[in-house]
Structures are given as C-alpha cells and as structure tokens.
C-alpha cells in the first residue's frame, strides 16, 4: 500500500510538472507573439519614408535624353530620333519637365520640317502634327530662343519664309528680347554688387603697335572687348556686327578687338594678324595679347565679348556669336547700370538744348520788343498828326 501511494505521488508530481511546463510554454508563446506584434508595429512606425526623387538623377536622365536626341539628329538617324523625342515629350515621368518637353517638341518640329511624314515612316505617331504645330508646342512648353527656328537650316526655305512661320518667329523674338533685357539688367546689378567679381586691374598692352589699340586711351572708361584667335570662323560671322556697333558706340563705350595667341614671342602669329584683319574687314582698333591675360578669364570658346566698367570690373560676359541687336541691348544696359560717359553726354546735350532754347527765347524777345517799339513810334506819329490837324482846325476857326 505504501508503495502504491509513493508511485501515485510520483505520477501526480510528474503530471503537475508537465502541466506547469506546458503553461510556461504557452505563456512564452503569447509573450513572443505580443513581442513580435509590437516589433512589427514599431517597425512600421520606424520604417523610412519613401524617398523623394533624386533631383540629381532626374537632371542626369534629362541630359541623357537630350544628348541622345541630339546625337541621333547629327547622325541622321531620324526615325529613331523621332521615337526618342516623342517618348520624352509624352512620358508621364516628364509631365512637369517643361525644359525637356520643349526640347523634344523643337526637335520634332525640325524633323517634320525636314522630312514631313514620308521621311519618318515607321516612327511612332509621325502623322499626328506638322512642323508649325510642334513649333507651337515647343513655345507652349517654354522654348524661348527664336534663332534655333529661324536659322534651322534643316527646315526647308519655303517653310521658313512662310507668313505663318515668320509670325511665330517674330513674336518669339520680342518675348526673347524682353526677357534678355531683364536678365542682363539683373546680371549687371549682381556684378556691380559683387565685391569678388573679377577685375582687370590694368588692360593689357598689345604685342604689336599696328592695330591702334592703346590701354591708356581707355583709362577710366567702360569698354567692350571682343577676344578671339586669328583665322577663327566665328569672327567671319560677327565682324559686320562688330563694325556697326563699334562705329556708333565709340563716344560712349568703345569696342576693341584683342587677338589671342598662346605664346608671347610667336612672331609668325604677330606678323599674320594685320594681314588677317585686312582680309577680315575689321574696322575696330585691335591689339594682340597672350595667355597671361586670357587664362584668368576662363573663356570657354571664341569669340567672347567682355563688358567692363571704368574700374576694370567684368560686368557681363557673352560667349560665342552675337548679333547687333543683342550687342546694343547689353551696351544700353551697361550705360544705364553704370551711369558713366553716356549719362554725362546726355547732360551736356540737355544743357546745349537749354542754351539753344534760351538763345531762341532771347531772339523772340528782341523781335517782340522791336515790334512793340515800331508800334509805339507809329502811335506817336499818329498822335502828333492828330494834334497838328487839331491846331490847324483851331487856327482856321480863329481866322473866320
């Protein structure tokens, strides 16, 4: 009996321990489950927010698309260029990218003008719009440079000379010029306020005295410097513009041309420069400078035009070809922003006008005084005549 009780007790204890272990396991499972759920909630709370699009990558992608379109155009792979441009314009990812959409629309306008539908067979949606339609779409997206249309030799002459085409170009030109003038004025304000703007402390002396250029005659005067190499194709394009502008602006902002050569002692280049100037038909005074002057200016390509105030501060730089209207726009803006020689000339002109007006008024006053004197003399004569007649009448009455 005792033995049986002992066995029963052992079994009871064993069952009790098993139940306790089972309870512990269940408790551990519940705790683990709660912990996992809690961790999951914490993970959701701490989960990083979705990153905004990387602007750097977006710019790179846009640059790649534009470069791809340009390369395909240059290599005359027009159906493929059309497909890339069409995709760039219609891709929803580029819906807010007006710059890329404008470029794509411009490219499609050029291609439509060049080949129409026939040359773009096989390209996507090649029949949807014509050259002028894509022209309008490019403008809608912010394309502002009219010259990319006006001088686009790919577009046939009959289209470029059409009334519809010219109306669009002229409208775009006005918008472009107005915006240019605003941008120039803003740039000049920034340059004048910038204490760290590059300043040419001394204009360079010429390596040759044959061009008539002298830094001394430009002392304390603003100046426009056209910098280029000799035998540069770009100068052939702008020489007429430079001559016209220089002739009119000599009394306000002189225009000078500086021919750059790498080595100071390159006598062959120095010798060739006057011959080149004569062949070119350049009428401005010119000088020859070496790398020591050009290097700090960090000129990307020639010709480059620098607009400098009377203290030598570079106010505005234009790289590349320049037309007469834009050249004059910059000069006018520089004159307005700096209030230099041109403003003084204006004062002199106004004083001369005032002097002329004063002289005119004096002459008019003299004429009026002379007329008044003549009228007075006539009145006195008439009065004397009247008195003489009255006296004669009285004498006649006395005699009677």
**What multimeric state do the chains show?**
single chain
Total number of β-strand segments?
A: 5
User: Total number of helical segments?
Assistant: 13
Strand order of the largest sheet: 3-2-1-4-5
Percent helix range: 55-70%
Fraction in beta strands: 5-15%
Distance between the termini: 204 Å
Arithmetic mean pLDDT = 77
Name the shape in a single word: extended
What is the succession of H and E elements?
A: HHHHHHHHEHEHEHEEHH
Largest sheet: 5 strands, mixed
Unreliable residue stretches: 4-13, 53-57, 343-351
Provide key terms for this protein.
single chain; 400 residues; alpha/beta; five-stranded mixed β-sheet
What does this structure look like?
The protein is an alpha/beta fold. It contains 13 helices and five strands. It has helices spanning 2-46, 55-74, 78-90, 98-115, 131-140, 147-150, 157-160, 163-193, 233-249, 267-280, 291-294, 324-338, 341-399; strands at 223-228, 255-260, 286-289, 304-308, 314-319. It has a five-stranded mixed sheet. Helix 8 packs parallel to helix 12. The longest helix has 59 residues, at 341-399. It is extended, with a radius of gyration of 44 Å. The protein starts with a helix and ends with a helix. The model is unreliable at 4-13, 53-57 and 343-351 (pLDDT under 50).
